[in-house]
Amino acid sequence: LAKQNGRNNYRFFTSEIQSRSARILSLENALRYAHTRGELSLHYQPQISLSDGKIVGVEALIRWNHPDFGMISPVEFIPIAEESGQILLIGEWVMRTAATRMKQWMDMGFPAMSVAVNLSAVQFHHAHLSKLVSTIIDEVKLPPWFLEIELTESAAAQNPLHAIETMNELSEKGIRLSIDDFGTGYSSLSYLKRFKVYKLKIDQSFIRDIGIDPEDREIVKIIIALGKSLGLKTIAEGVETKEQLDFLKENGCDEAQGYYFSEPLNVTDIEALLRAPEIILRKNNSN
Ligand code: C2E
Ligand code: MG
Ligand code: MG
Ligand code: MG
């Protein structure tokens, strides 16, 4: 009986693995046509300055709506695109689309703000990243300081020497760098000094339990203090409640982003919000 069970287990696992890799394969295939078929889009989530409640930037977040598979999360398809190398083309599409959109919003008269794009480690360590970024901002005619690049600590840590070089090239061009999911990855404080970083994005896992976990409260305070002493801006990710917001304000965090203010929105909806920013202002100022 045991033997039989064992065999069933084995079979169960192989079929699970088979169907999982079948999905990966078909997603990888479908991804090849995703951007030419118009299945990819960007949503934008506002970033709010806590001192005055103004929208000072947006983060561009990729969305993939496949006719058969439906909406596929970037958490699932970005790793597949990284593995297959497709991330280079997709990442270029993201950067060009986001920069073009921001330039258009500036021309439409919306107040100055930055657009942040997420960069995968694969893109970051690719030889011509800073050239590609320059090409795009020149082509789009977006002043470089309105483009922000988000990178995780682990992405930078994969090849620190190359990372420092690339970050310096980007910042010499005036492009701003944020460390995404700060506090979760492998990072050395000396990197922070050597990297030309502009902003620390406090990971949402620390924000989530601010109300109940004293350790998370301490970690958030320490990151804000670190930012202040190194002259870096701090932004909290995943802010969902008024309590979290109040804690962040009390402790001098510069900016916040999260469902409390707004989910990531499609172009139509974010434009509506940018036209009526009082909603955000009121949320930031309410007691
Ligand atoms: P991330 O850059 O850390 O983005 C934050 C994620 O948190 C987003 O998920 C966002 O929708 C979500 N979020 C925002 N506010 C809240 C909140 O208040 N509560 C909660 N629970 N979640 C919130 P999303 O859009 O599913 O993206 C997931 C990850 O996929 C991103 O994490 C980023 O690592 C990656 N990603 C997204 N777009 C791109 C892209 O264009 N290129 C690359 N390379 N990666 C991307
Ligand atoms: Mg991000
Ligand atoms: Mg993040
Ligand atoms: Mg993340």
UniProtKB/TrEMBL annotation:
Q: Where in the cell is it found?
A: Membrane
Looking at the record, the residues that make up the EAL domain are 24-278
Q: Which domain of life is it from?
A: Bacteria
Can you name this protein? Answer: Diguanylate cyclase
Q: What is the lineage of its organism?
A: Bacteria, Pseudomonadati, Campylobacterota, Epsilonproteobacteria, Campylobacterales
Range of the intact protein held here? 582 to 868 of 868
